[in-house]
Amino acid sequence: MTKVVFDISLSVDGFMTADGITPKEPLGQDGQRLHAWATDDEIERAPNPVSTVGALIAGRRTYETSLPWWGAGGPHPPIPVFVVTHGAVEPAPADSVYTLVTGGIEAALGQARAAAGNQDVRIMGGASLGQQFLAAGLVDEIVLHVVPVLLKGGIRMFDKLGPGHVGLEVLDVINSTAAMHLRYRVTR
């Protein structure tokens, strides 16, 4: 069965970007260090490796700031990427893996599930998108890559989840010198 997995790198103090976001530094000043752990070997060792993913969902900001680095093939070619957007955006590059979805998170999830087949759907990118999916109860698992740094500022990952608690069950803990990889099942 297809699982919906929210996968994010963050600092020990809970920030998924650093302060000082600019077009040239979309993760903030020195925020790229949050993804330095993501070497090919480490990615496949971490919970929910790319090999289990059939489709990705990204938010508009993540798409726009990452497209120059990802290119038409996306972050993990040839995995399709469904981009949630609420307004007009430049068309996706021709012959790319991107589909722009204006119908909200549930529409993007429906398209991503269809594309993923029996593989997982991974939600990646910004805090807002992850918060929307969690608040709507659409996430089955959360994978955190906790990087050993205290950023002391930036965008917090879990600030706006709405009322009530989100229960988590620990499924996996993998420690390395680059990051601690934690996988949780969301309990309802």
Descriptive notes:
There is one protein chain. The protein is α/β, with parallel strands linked by helices. The chain has a single domain (4-187), classed as Dihydrofolate Reductase, subunit A, CATH 3.40.430. Helices cover 20% and strands 27% of the residues. The chain has four helices and eight strands. It has helices at residues 40-45, 60-70, 105-116, 127-135, and strands spanning 4-11, 53-59, 81-84, 98-101, 120-123, 141-147, 167-175, 180-187. An eight-stranded mixed beta sheet has the order 4-3-2-5-1-6-8-7. A hairpin with a 4-residue loop joins strand 7 and strand 8 (180-187). The longest helix is centred in the middle third of the chain and has 12 residues, at 105-116. The radius of gyration is 16 Å and the shape is globular. The two termini are 18 Å apart. The model has no long low-confidence stretch (mean pLDDT 91).
Brief description of this entry?
This protein has helices spanning 40-45, 60-70, 105-116, 127-135; strands at residues 4-11, 53-59, 81-84, 98-101, 120-123, 141-147, 167-175, 180-187.
Defining traits:
188 residues, alpha/beta, Dihydrofolate Reductase, subunit A, 8-stranded mixed beta sheet, 4 helices, 20% helix, 27% strand, globular
Q: Give the H and E element order.
A: EHEHEEHEHEEE
Radius of gyration: 16 Å
Number of domains: 1
Strand order of the largest sheet: 4-3-2-5-1-6-8-7
Poorly predicted spans: none
CATH topology: Dihydrofolate Reductase, subunit A
Q: Biggest sheet, open or closed, and with what strands and sense?
A: 8 strands, mixed
Count of discrete alpha- or pi-helical segments spanning 4 or more residues: 4
Bin the strand percentage.
25-35%
C-alpha termini separation: 18 Å
CATH class categorisation: Alpha Beta
Mean pLDDT: 91
Q: Which CATH-level-2 architecture?
A: 3-Layer(aba) Sandwich
Q: Could you say which overall geometry the principal axes of the C-alpha atoms support?
A: globular
The CATH fourth-level homologous superfamily: Dihydrofolate Reductase, subunit A
Secondary structural class: alpha/beta
Number of strands: 8
